[in-house]
Amino acid sequence: MASIKKIVLASQSPFRRQLLASTGLAFDVVVAPIDEAAIKAPEPRQLAEARAAAKGLAVAAQMPECLVIGADQVLSLDGHSYDKAPDLATAKRHLESLNGKTHTLHSAIVLAYGEARQPVRLLRRFTVDVAMTMRRLSPAEIDGYLATGEWLGSVGCYQFENRGVQLFERVASEHSSIIGLPLQELMRQLRELGVAPLLQAMPPWHLHP
Q1: Which one of 117, 145, 174, 178 has the minimum C-beta count within 10 Å?
Q2: Which CATH number goes with the domain that contains 59?
Q3: Is 72 noted as a catalytic residue in this protein?
């Protein structure tokens, strides 16, 4: 029976790290050595899934007998994907295009595992789609929010977990899915694989794919 030495989060997002740490699960963080911009897909949801898989597989290949969580999030509006804005002018255009509309966040998660001299496998994969309705913002409100700097590093040019919550009229999911790491479904998948931190089990866990 295969065993898991440790859990690894393949993400550079500090918000995902904070969310996973809040569960009490012990884990390491390793940033995947991939070029996200080089990964293409015909649909936004598929793009999030492809990027999450690439991250998980790349890190699992480097770390045998570790269960790797690969995560990615893509925002879509009318079938168009939004990436992180490289500058303030782009961020402003993004917020103006989302203003008063409902967009979708696609939060994709994979669980990857590899053993020495064995191919890396994707054990689990799932995607949570979240509808986000932004209220009608005035030009002054958009400029005021951009001045906070929260647009940096965020796919929607906002941080819902901080002052960005003020931008929205309603959302259709729980907090962790909006941030990009759907904790309830992730914890369920981990338990099914044999990872049960609430039972005080310590690694190595036995893997039950």
Answers
A1: 117
A2: 3.90.950.10
A3: yes
